[in-house]
Write a structure and sequence with these properties.
Blueprint lengths: L25 H8 L11 H11 L4 H11 L5 H34 L1
Bound molecules: zinc ion.
């Protein structure tokens, strides 16, 4: 495994990096032992911009978010955002339907 700061090879039980002297917490040691593929890529401003842009396009947003939420290849942060957006949309749709039904019955009574 490699030091998270300088990248030099360190022993798993080292509390300090022998090369740069940085203290290695349990969490850092655990992170350093993770295989490269398990490390999650940080989302960039452009990723967030794209996510917000897609959010405001009707139909496309639901389809894209379902694909993102279901795909195992999607970045986990993007996947969670898509899942949260889908839950939000489902609640919004239910509220709109309830509001429409209430309005419909009120207008029918008048
Ligand atoms: Zn180091």
């Amino acid at each position: 495994m490699n030091c998270p700061t300088c990248g030099k090879t360190i022993n798993e039980n080292d509390t300090f990096c022998k090369n740069c002297g940085v203290p290695l917490t349990l969490k850092q040691r655990a992170f350093a032992t993770l295989p490269q593929t398990k490390k999650i890529r940080m989302l960039k401003i452009s990723d967030y911009f794209l996510m917000f842009l897609i959010s405001i396009i009707p139909i496309i947003n639901i389809i894209t978010f379902i694909v993102w939420a279901a795909s195992s290849k999607t970045n986990v942060n993007k996947k969670n955002y898509a899942s949260a957006a889908l839950i939000f949309m489902a609640i919004a749709i239910v509220l709109v339907i309830i509001t429409l039904l209430i309005t419909y019955y009120i207008l029918k009574l008048v």
